[in-house]
Amino acid sequence: xxxxxxxxxxxxxxxxxxxxxxxxxxxxxxxxxxxxxxxxxxxxxxxxxxxxxxxxx
Length: 57
Description:
Layout: H1 6-9, H2 21-49
């Protein structure tokens, strides 16, 4: 095996740019939450626009 000089070892980068399954899972959960919030907001706006709200009494 070839020996690597200490100066060359200091210039080697790597390992910190990988995307793990945990990060992907967290991002998909955030997207799902935002999607559900959008559905709820849209439904509420539609009901307000159609004047189809439940009475508070």
